[in-house]
Design a protein that fits this description.
The complex is a heterodimer of chains A (114) and B (111).
Chain A: E1 4-7, E2 10-13, E3 19-25, E4 31-37, E5 44-49, E6 56-57, E7 64-67, E8 75-78, E9 87-94, E10 104-105, E11 109-113
Parallel strand pairs in A: 2-11
Antiparallel strand pairs in A: 1-3, 3-8, 4-5, 4-9, 5-6, 7-8, 9-10, 9-11
Chain B: E1 10-14, E2 19-24, E3 32-38, E4 45-51, E5 56-58, E6 62-67, E7 72-77, E8 86-93, E9 100-101, E10 105-110
Parallel strand pairs in B: 1-10
Antiparallel strand pairs in B: 2-7, 3-4, 3-8, 5-6, 6-7, 8-9, 8-10
Classes of the chains: A mainly beta (114), B mainly beta (111).
Amino acid sequence: NAGVTQTPKFRVLKTGQSMTLLCAQDMNHEYMYWYRQDPGMGLRLIHYSVGEGTTAKGEVPDGYNVSRLKKQNFLLGLESAAPSQTSVYFCASSSAGQYNSPLHFGNGTRLTVT
Amino acid sequence: GESVGLHLPTLSVQEGDNSIINCAYSNSASDYFIWYKQESGKGPQFIIDIRSNMDKRQGQRVTVLLNKTVKHLSLQIAATQPGDSAVYFCAENPNTDKLIFGTGTRLQVFP
């Protein structure tokens, strides 16, 4: 069982470039999440999904888009990267929603936007 | 257990001692609390959770205590080991299906 796998692990983008972060989970979880982690701040929710084909905005959704075409995958897109999006991005999944079950996190993608 | 600026509060303990990491949560409506451990370069790892109808919950070498009166959560680690060195942070769910994460406390274990 790999759990939650994120690719790539590291990426450097120039301002205005686009990219997609990939997340895959093999635990058959319904719920998936994208967070960003910045120094001095707690994890902040970008977008989340409560099941295949669904997406919803989190706390800091601006500048990001997501898609959940398959239950096991949750993609995070940056259409036009900005330096403010320099961060570590974590994908997570859970079986029953954040209120009822703990999150299982991937090991993150470290993104630098210059 | 909350950070100030970019510098996490640090707890240094000797191997074999017990560790207590504290967290002040923000919302009196919060009903579900979780402790995570994050090692350098890795994602957060679930340690233990507790619901508001409980004051204490024990796991393997870890105990979580919840004091709703003062909105305080603590994580106790028994017989701390070098492998326990990490950043620990709490999360609360104020009944909205959106977790609020603390910024963490760094635990350093020295021989």
